[in-house]
Amino acid sequence: MSKIGEYVKTSYDELVHKVSWPTFKDLQSSAVVVAIASLVIALIVFCMDIVFGIHPWSWEGILGYFYNHIA
User: Which of 25, 29, 51, 64 has the fewest beta carbons under 10 Å from its own?
Assistant: First the structure.
């Protein structure tokens, strides 16, 4: 049991005295970067769905449209 207690004490000491926590401004800027990156990736995936077809049984996308009219 003393090992568990020592682990808790050293963990607490490290979290309180040795960890440098980010400021609120840093967290806000990081959150904005993550939100913008998520939107860009979602837009890329959406465009890929449109080009390659969302569901093969209902809509085949732009390429499927061209393939159906060429063949």
Answer: 25
